Amino acid sequence: MSIERLAGSATGRNRAVSFDNIVFTVATAGAPLADLTEQTRLTLAQLDKNLADAGSDKSRILSATVYITDISKKADMDAVWNPWIGPDNWPQRACIGVALAEGDLVEITLVAAKSL
Q1: CA 28 to chain centre
Q2: pLDDT at 27 > cutoff 80
Q3: Is the alpha carbon torsion for 74, 95, 19, 56 positive or negative?
Q4: Angle, alpha carbons 100-83-95 (nearest 5°)
Q5: HEC readout, 46-68
Q6: Given 14, 44, 97, 105, which is the most exposed site by the fewest CB atoms within 10 A?
Q7: pLDDT tens digit string along 46-94?
């Protein structure tokens, strides 16, 4: 079985890697002046693209880790995340308050199954 790597824009990182029927992907917004709500929206749009390019979609997400710089604003992120993921596709998810690269307020990693 081969490993498929979808190159990202940052040196030393891929935007998605797939092996067998599993996809691993990560995204940030790339919009340092946007607030957490908008950065979350942009990050999820990038994850939609990454998943599609790797042969999956958000209905196939198994696990998600959301990193935000201000955990007190988790509700702002959830206000975008919850409608995006929809009522039937809740993955296992953790949300962690961390320091991220300058200008990034949110970074999300996903593990998903490939579409059949």
Answers
A1: 7
A2: yes
A3: negative
A4: 30
A5: HHHHHHHHCCCCHHHEEEEEEEE
A6: 97
A7: 999 999 999 999 999 999 999 999 999 999 999 999 999 999 999 999 9
Tokens of 57: 């979609």
**Amino acid making up residue 75:** A
Domains and CATH numbers, the chain: 3-113 (3.30.1330.40)
Nearest-angstrom CA–CA distance, 40 and 46: 10
Residue carrying structure tokens 């409608």? 83
Burial (CB < 10 A; 0-12, 13-18, 19+), residue 86, is exposed
H/E run at residue 39: helix 36-53
The answer to whether 51 touches 76, Cβ cutoff 8 Å, is: no
Terminal C-alpha separation, the chain:
17
